[in-house]
C-alpha cells in the first residue's frame, strides 16, 4: 500500500480552511446591526375642509409641507354626502321644450353621483405633488390620518385614491386624526393617563377620549358636533356657551371630567382665543398644561401619522416593497444605505 501524497491532501485542507473562514465572516455579519432604511415618513391628514402633508425625517425633524383647501366635491365626500356631477343637457332640449312644455322636467340636467374615490383623488394628487416638490423625488409610501367619524366606505375610498396615485401605506389602515395629533405632541408616559383630544375647525367640533400607557392608546369614546364649527360662530351668539356645554356633557357622560390628565387640541381654528377660553372653563388646569407643548394644530395630525409611518418603515422587519411602477422612479428606494433626502 502506498502512502497518500501530501499534495493530494492539500486541496481538502484548503477547502476546510475556506469553510471556517466563511463561517467566521457570516457570524461577524450576523452580529452587525441592520442598516436603517433612512426613507422619510410621509403623512397626509384629510380633514373635512382641507388636507395637509408633513414629512418625518430620519433625524427626527418634521417638515410641514402644505395645506390645501378641498374642492366642493371633496368637502361633500368628507361630510358623508354623495358628491354629484351634472349630466349635460341635450342640445335638442331647448327646442323640444319650446314646442312641448311638459318635457321641461325631463330635460333638466340630472345629478349623477360620483364616487368617493373621484372626490378624494384630486386632494391626494395635490398633496403628493407638493411632497415630491419638497423631497426632489417621487415617493411610494404615505399614511393617512382621518376624522374618527368617517365610515368604512369613506376609509375604503381614501385607500383606493392612494393606490390610484401609486401610493402604498406602511400602516395597515388610516389612523384616527386625534391619535395622530397626540403622537405629534409627544404624549407618552409609563403610567396610565387619560387624554382628551379636541378638534375645533370651521367644519365642526369633535372630541375623542383615550387612555394611554407606554405609548399604547385605547379609545374610550368619541363624538362630533358639526353644527358647532367656527363657521357658525358669527351667526349664533350662544355659540361658545354651546361649545363649552357640549364638551362638559361629553366628559360627564364619560365619567371623566375630573380625571383628564392631558389635552391635545388640533384643527384649523384650534388657536382661537375664545375656543381656548372654552376649554379652560371646562378643564381648568389641564388646558394650561397642554398649551405649553401644543404642536402646530393645523399640521399635528399629518405630522403624527408621518412619525408613525417612518417608525414602521424603519423597523428591520418591514418588508413591504413599493409598487414597481413607483420604486424605479424614486431615488429613495434604490439603495437603502443612501443618505436620506
Highlighted features:
341 residues, Nucleotidyltransferase, domain 5, 5-stranded mixed sheet, 4-stranded mixed sheet, 12 helices, globular, disordered N terminus, nucleotide-binding, ATP-binding, ATP binding, signal
Walk me through this protein's architecture.
Keywords: ATP-binding, Nucleotide-binding, Signal, Stress response. This is Heat shock protein 70. GO terms for molecular function: ATP binding; ATP-dependent protein folding chaperone. By secondary structure, the chain is an alpha/beta fold. It folds into 2 domains: 157 residues, Nucleotidyltransferase, domain 5; 105 residues, ATPase, nucleotide binding domain (Nucleotidyltransferase, domain 5). 40% of the residues lie in helices and 20% in strands. It contains 12 helices and 11 strands. The strands form 3 sheets. The chain has a 5-stranded mixed beta sheet. A 4-stranded mixed beta sheet has the order 10-9-8-11, with helices on both faces. Strands 4-5 form a two-stranded antiparallel ribbon. Strand 2 and strand 3 form a beta hairpin. Helix 5 crosses helix 6 and helix 7 packs across helix 11. The longest helix is centred in the N-terminal third of the chain and has 26 residues. The protein is globular and about 85 Å long. The N and C termini lie far apart (71 Å). The N terminus and C terminus are likely disordered.
List the helices and strands and how they pair.
Blueprint: H1 6-31, E1 41-46, E2 50-56, E3 62-69, H2 72-78, E4 84-86, H3 93-99, H4 104-107, E5 111-113, H5 116-135, E6 143-146, H6 152-164, E7 175-176, H7 177-184, E8 193-201, E9 204-213, E10 216-225, H8 239-254, E11 262-266, H9 273-283, H10 285-291, H11 300-314, H12 324-327
Parallel strand pairs: 1-6, 6-7, 8-11
Antiparallel strand pairs: 1-2, 2-3, 4-5, 8-9, 9-10
Pfam families: HSP70 (PF00012)
Organism: Macrophomina phaseolina (strain MS6) (Charcoal rot fungus)
Protein name: Heat shock protein 70
Amino acid at each position: 500500500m502506498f502512502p497518500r501524497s501530501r499534495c493530494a491532501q492539500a486541496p481538502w485542507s484548503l477547502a476546510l480552511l475556506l469553510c471556517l473562514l466563511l463561517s467566521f465572516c457570516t457570524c461577524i455579519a450576523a452580529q452587525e446591526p441592520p442598516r436603517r432604511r433612512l426613507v422619510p415618513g410621509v403623512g397626509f391628514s384629510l380633514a373635512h375642509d382641507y388636507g395637509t402633508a408633513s414629512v418625518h425625517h430620519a433625524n427626527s425633524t418634521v417638515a410641514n409641507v402644505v395645506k390645501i383647501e378641498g374642492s366642493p366635491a371633496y368637502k361633500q365626500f368628507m361630510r358623508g354626502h354623495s358628491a354629484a356631477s351634472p349630466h349635460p343637457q341635450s342640445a335638442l332640449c331647448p327646442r323640444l321644450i319650446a314646442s312641448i312644455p311638459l318635457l321641461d322636467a325631463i330635460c333638466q340636467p340630472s345629478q349623477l353621483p360620483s364616487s368617493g374615490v373621484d372626490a378624494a383623488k384630486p386632494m391626494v394628487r395635490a398633496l403628493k405633488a407638493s411632497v415630491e416638490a419638497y423631497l426632489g423625488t417621487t415617493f411610494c409610501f404615505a399614511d393617512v390620518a382621518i376624522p374618527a367619524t368617517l365610515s368604512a366606505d369613506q376609509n375604503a375610498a381614501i385607500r383606493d385614491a392612494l393606490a390610484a396615485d401609486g401610493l402604498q401605506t406602511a400602516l395597515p389602515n388610516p389612523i384616527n386624526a386625534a391619535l395622530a395629533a397626540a403622537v405629534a405632541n409627544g404624549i407618552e408616559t409609563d403610567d396610565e393617563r387619560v387624554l382628551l383630544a379636541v378638534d375645533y375647525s370651521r367644519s365642526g367640533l369633535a372630541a375623542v377620549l383615550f387612555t394611554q400607557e407606554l405609548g399604547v392608546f385605547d379609545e374610550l369614546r368619541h363624538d362630533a358636533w358639526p353644527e358647532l364649527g367656527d363657521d357658525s360662530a358669527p351667526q349664533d351668539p350662544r355659540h361658545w356657551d354651546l361649545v363649552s356645554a357640549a364638551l362638559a356633557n361629553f366628559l360627564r357622560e364619560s365619567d371623566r371630567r375630573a380625571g383628564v390628565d392631558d389635552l391635545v387640541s388640533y384643527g384649523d381654528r384650534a388657536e382661537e382665543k375664545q375656543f381656548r377660553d372654552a376649554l379652560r372653563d371646562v378643564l381648568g388646569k389641564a388646558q394650561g398644561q397642554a398649551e405649553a407643548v401644543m404642536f402646530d394644530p393645523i399640521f399635528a395630525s399629518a405630522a403624527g401619522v408621518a412619525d408613525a409611518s417612518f417608525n414602521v418603515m424603519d423597523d428591520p422587519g418591514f418588508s413591504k416593497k413599493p409598487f414597481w411602477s413607483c420604486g424605479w422612479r424614486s431615488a429613495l428606494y434604490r439603495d437603502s444605505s443612501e443618505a436620506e433626502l
